[in-house]
Write a structure and sequence with these properties.
Strand content of chain B: under 5%
Order of helices and strands of chain B: HHHHHHHHHHH
Number of helices of chain A: 8
Helix content of chain A: 10-25%
Largest sheet of chain B: none
Order of helices and strands of chain A: EEEHEEEHHHEHEHEEHHEEEEEEEEEE
Strand content of chain A: 35-45%
Distance between the termini of chain A: 36 Å
Radius of gyration of chain A: 24 Å
Oligomer: heterodimer
């Protein structure tokens, strides 16, 4: 399980003057589900296309299963991809689409048919095998695309925002189909997405990219609770970021002086260094705590069992607090109210600004 | 549709097709001169042309020319349109402008220029010269149809084929060509029809190898002969069939795209 399958070694990709990927170093293990996440234009799709051989790295090397792949052209690799647009062949029916990869490998028609039908049935769309792909629903087309990519039994499957065109309820269904499939097959999935919920729901590790750089690699939990850069802290959802300077240092904690007050946080830093405290929205809560500040409620966002309240501190900093919908009634969080927000020192996260 | 639009439509179609219909009717008229009322029904004029070896020769020439032209024009244009779709390069707009240029030049100028050019390179008066000229003339029609189809292709489709193990040639054969098939067929029929009908340039460059439209003109120049109506009816029948097939292919493809 822990054999490295894909190694990116100082990989760069330039398009004329534009640097799409800068000095990327990444090891992906066999059987791992990796999500590459970031805003559009961050280089995530370019990274995926380099793995597929559709774009060549400007410098650095990419190896798959120990073999340097830089000079191996796309059609000689076994790195099938599930496309954002699905890219099903409109003039072929579902079964012929799935057979395509086998046909290119020169497998006999009977064998092709058998294996394609096998996969279509496994994806629970066997009955639609002879249907034109244009007549299938979004979810069915998605399954055809998956079957087409998996039919050659690759070691590595690349997925480029495959769920972005689906309805919300289908996304959840396909997420469980994907995770189940990945666990059963034991192959490596590299999944590119801009959706944090998709990445966190499925991936063993997430890679967060920003403007061509890999900003952080870690488990969803690590990335969520211990962001390494301000970008990551802002990108992974409902974090409150309180920037300031280290004002005092103790054995295992430091005090950071911010415009909203001086707060304690675990960690080590030099006196006078620029530092921020990151407090996740579900950790900062209404009420007193070891650290506390006051803010005024601006608005609320209802997303089912959780409610996010948006507040403004005295100096205009926007703060976010996530609370259980059923607990809302007792919290005095009506718009316009001023409330005290607190959190425990050990729950904050120290972020040292390196740039 | 309002009554006004309906009437307008009928008038426009009437204006375009009435002369053709009249010519068709008189091709079965037994009187030598086209006067009303018609004197009687006859197949005489058709029998005359079918007995005329000149008719058969020019008909054969027309078929050879349009059959060859449509294949050469469509193949060349497919390569050009694919180049345009796939690559960007310096001078690309000039490259496209040259292909799309012919309709903007008066036919008589093209015809004269072709005649001068062909005689200089020793190609005048042959079927190949008509074919070459018609290829240039019909290319813009083929270009319009094939480019439209290529513009509808999902950008990832070709890359998806490579990704699944198809080399560039294989992807062309297995993905791009099947995707463009309706447009290619449609282009074949349309360029064949345009070439089959074309008179001006053919008249200048054909020399002794007359095509059917040139043959018709030669009859008309000498006499008033109802044979012309008969030939016209045949030529019209062939051309309109080719054009209608071409349009149906485009239409059904669009219908499917809309669904």
């Amino acid at each position: 399980m822990t054999q490295p399958l894909v190694v990116l070694d100082h990989v760069e990709k330039h398009f004329d003057d534009f640097v799409a990927v800068r000095d990327a170093n990444l090891t992906i293990n066999e059987g791992e589900f990796i999500a590459i996440m970031g805003p559009s234009g961050c280089g995530k799709t370019t990274t995926l296309r380099m793995l597929a051989g559709l774009d060549a790295p400007t410098s650095g090397t990419i190896s798959i299963a120990g073999q340097v792949m830089n000079d191996v052209s796309a059609h000689e690799r076994d790195t099938p991809m599930v496309w954002q647009s699905l890219a099903l062949f409109p003039f072929l029916n579902a079964r012929e689409n799935v057979e395509f990869g086998l046909k290119m490998r020169g497998i006999s028609p009977e064998e092709r048919r058998k294996r394609a039908m096998n996969w279509l049935e496994r994806m629970e769309i066997g009955e639609f095998a002879e249907r034109n792909v244009d007549t299938l629903s979004g979810g069915q087309r998605q399954r055809v695309a998956l079957a087409r990519a998996l039919v050659t039994e690759p070691k590595l499957l690349l997925l480029d925002e495959p769920l972005s065109a689906l309805d919300a309820h289908l996304v959840i269904r396909m997420q469980s189909v994907l995770t189940k499939l990945q666990r059963e097959l034991g192959i490596t999935f590299v999944y590119v997405t801009h959706s944090q919920s998709e990445a966190f729901a499925m991936a063993d590790r997430v890679v967060i990219m920003s403007k061509g750089d890999i900003a952080q690699v870690g488990s969803p939990r690590e990335v969520y609770r211990a962001p390494k850069t301000r970008f990551v802290a802002e990108f992974v959802g409902r974090n409150n970021i309180l920037p300031g300077k280290v004002a005092a240092i103790a054995q295992e904690s430091v005090s950071v002086e911010t415009p909203l007050g001086t707060f304690n946080v675990q960690g080590q830093a030099a006196l006078g260094a620029s530092a921020s405290i990151v407090v996740a929205g579900d950790i900062m809560q209404v009420g007193e705590g070891e650290n506390a500040l006051t803010a005024t409620v601006i608005s609320e966002e209802f997303v089912g069992s959780m409610v996010t309240a948006f507040l403004e501190a005295e100096d205009g900093t926007e703060l976010k607090v996530q609370v259980q919908e059923r607990a809302l009634a007792n919290l005095n969080l009506e718009t316009g109210n001023t409330v005290t927000l607190g959190w425990a020192t050990q729950d904050g996260h120290l972020l040292l600004e390196d740039r | 549709m309002t009554l006004f639009l309906r009437t307008y439509l009928v008038l426009v179609f009437g204006f375009v097709f009435l002369p053709i219909v009249v010519s068709m009717l008189f091709s079965f008229n037994s009187d030598r001169f086209p006067t009303l009322p018609m004197s009687g029904f006859t197949f005489e004029w058709y029998q005359t042309i079918f007995a005329d070896p000149d008719f058969w020769r020019s008909a054969k020439n027309s078929l050879i020319v349009s059959g060859t032209t449509c294949i050469i024009a469509t193949s060349l244009v497919f390569c050009t349109a694919y180049t345009d779709y796939r690559y960007s390069f310096r001078g690309k707009s000039l490259f496209l402008a040259i292909i799309l240029l012919p309709p903007t030049i008066p036919l008589i100028i093209i015809a004269l220029a072709m005649l001068a050019w062909f005689s200089r390179v020793g190609m005048s008066g042959q079927l190949t010269s008509i074919i070459a000229a018609h290829t240039v003339l019909t290319a813009p029609f083929a270009m319009a149809i094939i480019r439209l189809r290529l513009s509808q292709i999902d950008e990832s489709l070709e890359a998806a084929a490579w990704n699944l193990g198809a080399s560039e040639w294989r992807a062309m054969r297995e993905v791009i060509l099947p995707f463009c098939k309706p447009a290619i067929l449609s282009s074949l029929f349309l360029t064949a029809a345009v070439s089959f009908d074309e008179f001006t340039v053919a008249w200048f460059v054909s020399g002794l190898n007359k095509t059917l439209p040139v043959h018709v003109l030669e009859i008309v120049q000498g006499t008033i002969d109802p044979q012309v109506n008969a030939i016209g009816t045949l030529v019209f029948g062939i051309s309109i069939t080719l054009v209608v097939i071409s349009q149906l292919l485009i239409f059904f493809r669009l219908q499917r795209a809309i669904q």
